Amino acid sequence: MTTGRAPVADGAKRVLVVEDDPSIMLGLRINLEAEGYLVLPAEDGEKGLELARSERPDLVILDVMLPRMNGFQVLQTLRREGMAMPIIVVSARTGEMDKVTGLELGNNAAAALITRGMVEITRLAIACGGRAETMSGLSGIGDLVLTCTGGLSRNRAVGVELGKGRKLPEILAGLHGKVAEGVRSTTAALGLAQRYGVEMPITEQMAAVLHEDKSPLDAIRDLMSRPGRTE
């Protein structure tokens, strides 16, 4: 009886696939094995973490919405334990991710946060009488990218430390009087959003982390539980 799977050569690169949907797992496995990879399957986050620790795969393909331990928790744990293998995070949702750098969730997640953040900032700017063209230029997306990636950005520094689990008062005290304007402008932006009826889910979660002591991981879970959107 044949399994229908392509033979895998000795010494083949090993790919850990952490996915709870059997049909998606099967599709990934067939395609990866056809390319000569050895697939290590895991149906939940805890099993995926266990295999990553024991097998040290060459690549991890990681779903987000997993039973027992979600993909973000798995990713954060792997990075904190010093495992630097490439990780591809996949999800059927277009949810946004918060405080990515501090949680060590990777560049793909950072790009998603910046992109989705720019969408809601643009919605607010247009509602307030601004122009979409302005937001796509240096004063819009240019400023946002610099803020989110620049080593001298105080706003970024605050976000990174929040992601690491530090409390806001302690972080602000460490700035020695310098201002991270995003701490206060987040509340102001939400006030404008409510006034003009603009949906700003990332900003709402950021305000909850800043001012309501909400954990970054809880913010991620709430954002990822939002229904998928066509955009």
Account of the protein in words:
This protein is α/β, with parallel strands linked by helices. It has two domains: about 15-90, Response regulator (Rossmann fold); about 100-215, N-(1-d-carboxylethyl)-l-norvaline Dehydrogenase, domain 2 (Orthogonal Bundle), CATH 1.10.1040. It has twelve helices and four strands; from the N terminus they run βαβαβαβααααααααα. Strands 2-1-3-4 form a four-stranded parallel beta sheet. Helix 3 links the parallel strand 3 and strand 4 (about 85-90). Helix 2 runs parallel beside helix 3 (about 70-80) and helix 11 (about 200-210) packs antiparallel against helix 12 (about 215-225). The radius of gyration is 20 Å and the shape is elongated. About 25% of the residues are buried.
CATH architecture of the largest domain: Orthogonal Bundle
Q: Which stretches are poorly predicted, pLDDT < 50 over at least 5 residues?
A: 92-101
Mean pLDDT: 82
Number of strands: 4
The geometry reads as: elongated
User: Any idea of the CATH topology of the largest domain?
Assistant: N-(1-d-carboxylethyl)-l-norvaline Dehydrogenase, domain 2
Number of discrete helical segments: 12
CATH superfamily of the largest domain: N-(1-d-carboxylethyl)-l-norvaline Dehydrogenase, domain 2
Report the span from N to C terminus.
45 Å
Main sheet: strand order: 2-1-3-4
CATH class of the largest domain: Mainly Alpha
Task: Write down the oligomeric state.
Answer: single chain
List keywords for this structure.
231 residues, 12 helices, N-(1-d-carboxylethyl)-l-norvaline Dehydrogenase, domain 2, alpha/beta, Rossmann fold, four-stranded parallel beta sheet
